[in-house]
Amino acid sequence: MDYLIMPFSVDDIWWLETFIDDWFFVIALALFVVELLRYAFKKQITKNLLGDSITNFVTLGLFMLLVSFVALAYIAVFFFVYDNFKLVELPPTLWTIGCCIVLADLAYYWEHRFLHKNGFAWATHTVHHSSPHFNISVAYRHGPLDWLFPLFFYLPLALLGFHPFIILLAEVIVQVYQTLLHTETVKKLPRPIEAIFNTPSHHRVHHARNTQYLDKNYAGIFIIWDRLFGTFAKEEEKVKYGVYPQLNSVNPIKVFFSGYIKLAQQMGVISKWSNKFRLLYKPPIWAWQQTQRKRHKATENTKQ
Amino acid sequence: MKLAGSILLSSAIVFTVWGVALLQPTPARAITAPAPPTTSAQSKPIANNVAVVSPEKTNRHTVKQFDELVIEGNTATLATSQVEQLWRELSNNKRLNQKLLRNPTTIYVYYRDFSANYDSATVTVGYATTDLSHTKAATTIASAKYGNLLKKKKYTPSQLSKAWQEIDYRRNLEHVIEIHYLSENSEVLATEVLVNYKEQ
Ligand SMILES: [Zn+2]
Ligand SMILES: [Zn+2]
Hints:
Chain A has 14 helices and no strands. Chain A has 304 residues and is mostly helical. About 17% of the residues of chain B have low confidence. Chain B has one domain: Multidrug-efflux Transporter 1 Regulator Bmrr, Chain A (Alpha-Beta Barrel), CATH 3.20.80. In chain B, 26% of the residues lie in helices and 32% in strands. Chain B is elongated, with a radius of gyration of 20 Å. In chain B, strands 1-6-8-7-3-4-2-5 form an eight-stranded antiparallel β-sheet. Chain B is α+β, with helices and mostly antiparallel strands. The site of one zinc ion has 4 residues of chain A, from loops.
């Protein structure tokens, strides 16, 4: 048990974090090739699938470009809170890292749930959901503000005394685990695993536009959060991927900004200023209802 | 579950997991920097000069030659978390304090013979014998090359304990010397921490 409490240097943790970050991408690319071979074998490769996959990697490129501008500030905020406001100081051990991963995963759950329930946040997260396909490349499909919202949910960990590098490591581990879920290759895993952990099956449900699957399975690593908080749905009916209404575009620029363009359009359609503002914090379903109502009224008027 | 209930349950989970993190038995956490005897002077606010620790910046400690030094004070083999006790014993050590020629300018804390998991060591908290009229049962700190874990500066207790976490515990830790520099009225002005590892 000694290895649990053997302290690391924080430099090692930083190194491990960047190591996982870099090498995991290579592994994911290899897995993507395997997926493509499988689709080829089943004669399911379409022009749209290829275009969509390329778009996914282009959005990743755009996202990384934005991240390169904010990364230092992002880390500095964690250090600022940690150095000035931490309640205790937890040693850099495996034990601490384990606890941090569990808490980071819980933070991920809430951040993800927030992304689905807040109009301004959904406008960036909708990009990830807008693909009609489901493969590893979709995991890399990012929106322009995907880096912003995690900050608020992970920052409390610095307050609790987790070193910023440990938090970043935990964030990366949750992210990497999440990435692996984006595949149709794995059907269902053994029941105990499906009961405790998030799996490709659970995450397919999360990407569905079938009504019974909407706003379900927000989990990162542990599906128990969804089971506990009543947001779990089991994969039964075949999943139809994407968002409603569908985006129907493989233009990377259009895809990358689709959420915010749509938000701006909705704001234009709605006349009352208080309602324009509501679009930013109300759940996306509210925006949809508003524009539907508007459209409904418009057709009523033309009928008369 | 309703949203409010879920948030409440989440908070309970956070505190539980945090509690588990706090309960870990660990050498790094047990080793906390001792509060020097003049704690009242210590509690003065100190400008926070901990900048963002960039990974390139840390752990590149300068090497320093430490010349042989004889100190006398209170020695015990104990958990490093209990070093404060030695500080108390030193300030209550009438016999020793009567031998002081002047207000001491430095207090040394000398750690050696660490246990396998580094949570205990033989520790001496004491004065250089040059500050004493005569010596008995002195401890010699052999001359050696030391890494400068903390440069001579004023630090907060949390900065001091953070320094302990920067020790490379995978190498064979041999000695740690904390040098506390005192003012005329025995307030700690600055601290320096030196560390050396067994040659392999
Ligand atoms: Zn989502
Ligand atoms: Zn996803």
